[in-house]
What we know:
Helices cover 93% and strands 0% of the residues. By secondary structure, it is mainly α. The chain is flat and about 110 Å long.
Amino acid sequence: MTDAHNKTAGTNGGNDQQETLRDRATHAYENAVARAGETADHSREAVRDAAHQAGDFVESNPLGVLAGGLALGALVGALLPRSEREKQLLAPVGKKVGMAAVAAFAAAKEAGKGELEGLGLTKDGAQEKAKSLLQGVATAASHAGSAAAEAGREHIKTAH
């Protein structure tokens, strides 16, 4: 009966080991799935945050984004080689776009200059405003100094 008992105990020991290994494997698998889910959640949050930050940046600096996009497009366009057919087809368009850009820049410059002149922000007007401001500051400082001196004299008279 001892041999039969040992065989049964040995078999149960093997089953216990298998169950322990199975439990460990199941536990490791469950932990891995949980970590993968957490990592996916964190990744989604990070992507969402990055998208919000990008949207906020675009809203707060649209001209910078536009300029960056144009610069990137020009860089990519400069790096890609042109075919002869593209040169033939796009050369006239490029000249027209270039001339239109120069005309638009000149018009914007003149419009801006006109707006500044309308506000009195010309070179002579700015010098005149600065001179007037400095005179006002000097007058205010002179009045403040006189008032301080007078107050000091009055204080000395009343102290004696």
